[in-house]
Structure formats: C-alpha cells, structure tokens
Design goal:
The chain has helices spanning about 25-35, 50-60, 75-80; strands spanning about 10-15, 40-45, 70, 90. It is built from 3 helices and 4 strands, in the order βαβαβαβ. The protein is about 30% helix and about 15% strand. Strands 3-2-1-4 form a 4-stranded parallel beta sheet, covered by helices on one side.
Amino acid sequence: MRELGLFGKKFSITISRLETLKHVDDVIQTLAEVRKMGFDLRALLGGDGRLKEDLRSLAESRGLKNYVVFAGNRPQEWIANVLPSASVVVSPFMGRSL
C-alpha cells in the first residue's frame, strides 16, 4: 500500500476495465459525494482501458486528483493481497474481478 500512497488510509477498491459499460465514472462521482459528507476516503481503481484519461480528468474536475489512485492492470495475486486492506469493494459492473 505504501507504493500507492494508501498506507494507513481508508479506501474503496474497484477492479474493472476502464470502459463506459463498466460505469467506473460512477465510482468517482460517488467518492465525491462521500467526501462531501465528511468521510476521508480514497478510491483505488485497478484496471486499464480507453476511459483512463477521461476518468483522470473527471477526478480532477471533482477535486479528487489526490484521492483517486489508478493502479493499472495488476495480476490476480496482487488483487487478492490488496482486497483485505480496502474499507469497501465497489462493483458497479464487474465480471472476472468479482
């Protein structure tokens, strides 16, 4: 978690292709609302896809640049090791990763 800047911090995790049909933008929109309510939460997004830069822009436009971590594609073992550290798993539309 140190490498991602999440050590000792509460975070949600979403593992998904970064594509429109996966609704990963909803994760960022929801994080903005959760933070507005006073919760100090970050979001870890694992996966890659065509929307990566659009999602980065969305995070920045919502003031979340420092609260959304894009981890890229990671092996199953990495995912299995990180999941227990997450405060919540957000699965708007998942397949294999779920």
